[in-house]
Write a structure and sequence with these properties.
This protein is of the alpha/beta class. Helices cover about 35% and strands about 20% of the residues. It contains 19 helices and 25 strands.
């Protein structure tokens, strides 16, 4: 303000400084931290080249808003002088353009993990310009504790406030923040006054995990159970900077569910009703886990309008559909590690935060995604995919076998340990030129052993108790688009005549020919006839 030559410079500066002081007084109650407050640029200058930096953030919620941009400006300036400044960037999951995008655009990331969705990051990874480790989200914290990833040098963590004793009020995501604060040599805090102070008390931070051979069972049997404390702990001596911000999360607007999404949702709800009638599910189902996106929101909307009551959720992120269900009373409680809300839903969340605080628990991702808890509570896991093959192997991360999309995220944590493992996708992609049901998946994230249910708008394939050859017929007939069914059936018939083994028949010379054809021509559609799958 003082450098802009404003005619009311003195008055503007006075009100600016008074506002900043009030924010500090309201949000930072630990006295020693007041002397460590500084600008984002000053804090970024404390991060050395080559450092492993753990930053908060999970699906566009709770990420640092100021320091990453300041660090990007510093990197750009130093690299223009030939310094070659890069960092290793670890987070909870995807973040936002102000973090991933800003650092990638100045070529400032050497290694990224465990999940990303930024287009610049994705482009650099697929061009071989950035290293990327795709890892199950439940594994990240323990890998850091085990020392598998090397030393964590600096943590940059957003919080909603600091208590008089130095404990931290988490913001809109927890992610790996507990681990970053515990394991980092140095800590930079961003205290974001944008977050509703009533967030305090919504979180449940469990400090009972340990490394082998000292592990003990996690004492949780219900999704809404609290086993920890509402605050993050941090050694005050490690805090080298406190930066005040007042900036919103990246809140994405989700498109309204289309006909395809609604048809997929209808198949899933009909299946769940059938399972209840068969006695394989209780009438109020089991805890729900849902990935992010339009199909997931369509399923939640269908459940909200359906006959099921007293539902619960134990998942990674809470999106708009779950807030709708909490308001209607269909959903009694929801546990997650982060919010992932549209702007309208975020406004509703803040307006009704006392209502939601009685029904929502936000936890570290090592707990929200923990296999022990997923298996014990018997989750119904519903996740998206890029493609599935005729035997039920699922690819959720790669395009054409070698280009990463986003990452496996937590889908593997849930799928392999869930009571019901459901994967869903439209049957076609790229305006109908690509079948999402293929002879052989070009990359496998979830093997046929971890996939129970496949769903497209065409129908639902229940694969439980079926051999590979039986699975192939069910998947083709119920999930593949009619335009591609003849070619898929033809492939199976010829594989059953010519494959080396008949347990999982494949023609190795053409199993990935659909992908190769798309790479060469932009189309998977093949000529009709006996060689249509070739």
């Amino acid at each position: 303000v003082l450098t802009q030559g404003h005619p009311l410079t003195g008055r503007v500066a006075f009100f600016f400084l008074r506002s900043l002081f009030m924010s500090l007084a309201d949000r930072v109650l630990y006295p020693d931290f007041l002397s460590r407050t500084m600008t984002a640029d000053e804090a970024a200058a404390l991060i050395p080249a080559g450092a492993h930096v753990g930053m908060s953030g999970f699906t566009g919620a709770g990420y640092p808003k100021a320091v990453p941009g300041a660090l990007a400006r510093r990197i750009e300036s130093l690299n223009a002088q030939g310094h070659g400044f890069k960092i290793g960037l670890w987070t909870g999951a995807s973040t936002a353009p102000e973090l991933d995008g800003a650092l990638a655009q100045v070529d400032g990331i050497e290694m990224r993990l465990p999940y990303q969705s930024d287009p610049t990051v994705r482009r650099q990874i697929n061009a071989g310009q950035m290293q990327y480790v795709d890892i199950h989200l439940s594994h990240v914290a323990q890998f850091v504790w085990f020392g598998f990833l090397g030393k964590l040098d600096v943590a940059v963590v957003e919080v909603a406030g600091v208590l008089p004793d130095g404990r931290l009020i988490p913001s809109s995501s927890v992610g790996n923040n507990k681990t970053w604060l515990d394991q980092a040599d140095k800590v930079i805090l961003e205290v974001n006054a944008w977050h509703n102070p009533a967030l305090e008390g919504m979180h449940d931070i469990y400090y009972g995990t340990d490394v082998p051979p000292h592990r003990k069972p996690i004492p949780m049997t219900e999704p809404n159970q609290r086993i920890g404390e509402p605050y993050l702990r941090c050694d005050p001596n490690k805090v080298i900077a406190v930066v005040m911000t007042n900036q919103p999360d990246r809140n994405s607007v989700y498109a309204a569910p289309d006909d395809t999404s609604n048809r997929i949702a209808g198949h899933i709800i009909e299946f769940l009703q059938h399972e209840v009638k068969k006695g394989r599910l209780p009438k109020d189902l089991l805890p729900l886990q849902s990935g992010v996106g339009n199909i997931a929101n369509a399923v939640l909307a269908g459940l909200n309008n359906g006959a099921f009551e007293n539902l619960t959720a134990y998942t990674e992120v809470l999106q708009d559909g779950m807030l709708d269900m909490l308001r209607s009373g269909k959903l009694a409680s929801a546990s997650a590690t982060a919010l992932s809300l549209s702007p309208a839903a975020m406004q509703d969340f803040n307006d009704r935060i006392e209502f939601y605080k009685q029904r929502i628990v936000l936890r570290p991702q090592e707990i929200s995604n923990h296999p022990e808890l997923i298996r014990r509570m018997g989750l119904i896991a519903m996740n998206g995919m890029i493609e599935a093959d005729i035997y039920g192997n699922v690819n959720s991360t790669h395009v054409m076998g070698s280009a990463i999309m986003n990452g496996i995220g937590g889908s593997g944590d849930f799928a392999r340990n869930a009571y019901l493992s459901i994967f869903m996708t439209p049957s076609l992609a790229k305006n109908g030129s690509i079948s999402c049901i293929v002879p052989m998946a070009s990359h496998v994230d979830h093997t046929e052993h971890d996939v129970q249910i496949l769903v497209t708008e065409q129908g639902l394939a229940d694969l439980r108790g079926h051999s590979p050859s039986q699975r192939a017929e069910i998947i083709i007939d119920r999930c593949a688009h009619p335009d591609f069914r003849p070619a898929l059936h033809d492939y199976v018939a010829r594989a059953q005549r010519g494959a080396v083994g008949q347990h999982t028949p494949h023609l190795l010379g053409e199993a990935l020919s659909w992908h190769q054809r798309y790479v060469e021509t932009g189309n998977r559609r093949a000529p009709t006839g006996p060689a249509s799958a070739a």
